[in-house]
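Record format v2
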Amino acid sequence: MDDKTLIAKRVARELKNGDLVNLGIGLPTLVANHLPQGIEVYFQSENGIIGMSAVPGAGLIDDYLIDAGGIFVGALPGAATLDSSMSFSLIRGGHLDITVLGGLQVDEKGRLANWMIPGKMVPGMGGGMDLATGARRVIVSMTHAGKGGAKIVKECTLPLTSERRIDLVVTEMAVIEPTEQGLVLKERAPGVSINQIVAATEATLTIPDNVPEMAID
Amino acid sequence: MSKAISLTQAAEMIPDGATIMVGGFLAVGSPRRLLQELARQGRKHLTLITNDTSKPGVMGNALLIENKCVDHLIASHIGTNPETQRQMIAGELKVELCPQGSLVERIRAGGAGLGGVLTPTGVGTVAAEGKREMEIDGKKFLLESPLKADFALIGARRSDYRGNLDYALTARNFNPLMALAGATVIAEPNEIVPIGVIPPDEVVTPHVLVDYIIERRQSNGR
């Protein structure tokens, strides 16, 4: 199993029946392909739809039905379209159960930086700041370390997406839960040792006596 | 009195230096013919308030950027258009980035007679720079100012003869909010239908907000 599939499968296990879910662009969108059996959730895209699906078949693209990444999508029975004010009211107002976002850095306070690399990449925050601030649960899915080194760091050096403490980080090496006391190592990926995780992490991790392997299908 | 005007007339109404709001999300729901015509007429020094600047090769706001019609851009995302980023870095285009949910509420505030919006989004980030922070019931909020425009350019699915509008699927996005916040509102519908075809319950933007409807291309039934 490749790293991205592993991450997507593990994140998918966080979704509960009936959840309203917003998946960020990139790695997080893969989560939709790995829903556990028997779990039904509603996917929101912040450009204005609840209940989107993949395009149901060849030739069935609608010019007016896209997701927030500009990809043509379909809609399920019971879907609803929304204007942008309603869409972000759902996001900020505590109505969005889970958002899954990509990450550039997460720090010991559980703060996320994921939208900008000064001097290199200034795409704009889009809906990311609203999602990271307003969703009831924020799950960050990302590779554990990048070309520039550790991504789970003592303190974010990149511009923050939100001050809010996110709820869970899932990487190809570990599941980490930010708490008031700092980052707690909850699970390790199959075949990955605690020492390997610590070596790939700049932040201090709290390591419980028992750190089980990630449960994935 | 008919609100219908030609595409050329609609674009000519918007002078150099105007502030315009343009509906749409990655050009879905944008008034594409009007944007194309503005670019063709070589409009200059516009202030553009919009979610994004679309993608190169795609109709929509990208045409205004590529043709250097815009001096000042207020948007939430420019990552899909490298030309926008190039102009920003080169100092040719002033860009103000605003979180998407804050942007839409600023527009709504401008159109709804509100003095601003308090949002938790952006507190403690660069989006808070220059903005007042307020504490309400122990929680921190940013005061975001209202936005208005000289013109709101709206992409609709249908307009009836009077200017009642509805929208298709995710083409709704910013359009209904911008229709409140433009001093002059120009709608570009895909279809123009008799009054009553859009039932009252399905009217999203009421006709009183819409000043002009851009005529359809004359097809003579072909």
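Chain B is about 25% helix and 30% strand.
The two ends of chain B are 28 Å apart (CA to CA).
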